[in-house]
Amino acid sequence: MNLLSALTVVNVIIQQVVIKCAGLLQHYIKSGKSEKEIKKTIYQFCVSLKIQTARVCDGITELFAGEVIYVLGKVSIGPDEVCSFVIGDACGDVYNPLHEWEVMFPPVPKPAAVEQKIPEMSAPTFKVLHLSDTHYDPYYHEGSNAACSEPLCCRLTNGIASTKDQAAGKWGDYRKCDTPKITVDNMLQHIQETHPDVDYIMWTGDLPPHDIWNQTREENLKILKETVKQMSDMFPGAPIFPALGNHESAPVNSFPPPYVDNPDNSIAWLYDELDLQWRKWLPSSVSTTVRRGAFYSVLVRPGFRLISLNTNYCNNKNWYRSKESRRSFF
């Protein structure tokens, strides 16, 4: 069997498993099974199919089940479409007319095209720093096992490495590990010393580590506050324009729209804190949109406006996207 044939077989197997799991899950929800019973089934599937270790399966179930149950209980899509939503192309192109959405734009006339002149070599320039995906891990431990069986390694929970080759290094590791604080500090210090003339900084998120089965709102907010302080201390005079990463939420990729306002599912816990933390760099005039959807627009200087969008609402891993795909989130 060649590689292409093997991949086709694997995709078919994955598709069948996801469709069956989704079908069973929807049946349980519609038949009134309790959340506890559904969680037990999800956990058993995860362990039996060896999707992850028992510890990871347990954490994933506890973190994600409530949201999945809430959303699937309110949508009218079938298992095939759930598979297409979760996995993507491997499940085939599932068409549903419910997702056809016509958006009416205001009747503003299209402006005439103006040919832009190439700036002179002596024209003013910007020096812009773009930072992204630091994924600082406060539990990174030098010498721990970097070749573990879980999605994230290099922690004491993975044990001390049995050989030197398996050990997490001082500055990080190229295997399944995130970034130790010492590396983030060193990187920012180097940038500060090498580029003291940065005009502004674009900071596009993804701050927490990848232990998505083990995260809490409190822990993610702690990471947010620590990294904001780190940036503020390291670049005290530079304008910083942040954007939200998909890992800032707990559980990961969970971005309910503003009209979901019950405490268990609302995202206000994150956006309210973002507004407080980002206020170090942003004007109070953007507070309303940051608290509503973690987006904003600011004038950097005359003739130059910056727009920070929260595109996580459109992430195919955001379960709320499947709930009302034709409804405007705002």
Automatic annotation (TrEMBL):
Boundaries of every Calcineurin-like phosphoesterase domain copy: 126-313
Gene Ontology molecular functions: acid sphingomyelin phosphodiesterase activity
Gene Ontology annotations of biological process type: ceramide biosynthetic process; sphingomyelin catabolic process
InterPro entries documented for this protein: ASMase/PPN1_MPP (IPR041805), Calcineurin-like_PHP (IPR004843), Metallo-depent_PP-like (IPR029052), Saposin-like (IPR011001)
Homology family: Belongs to the acid sphingomyelinase family.
Protein name: Calcineurin-like phosphoesterase domain-containing protein
Record has Endoplasmic reticulum as a keyword: no
Source taxonomy: Eukaryota, Metazoa, Ecdysozoa, Arthropoda, Hexapoda
GO cellular component, one term: lysosome
PANTHER family: SPHINGOMYELIN PHOSPHODIESTERASE
UniProt entry keywords in alphabetical sequence: Glycoprotein, Hydrolase
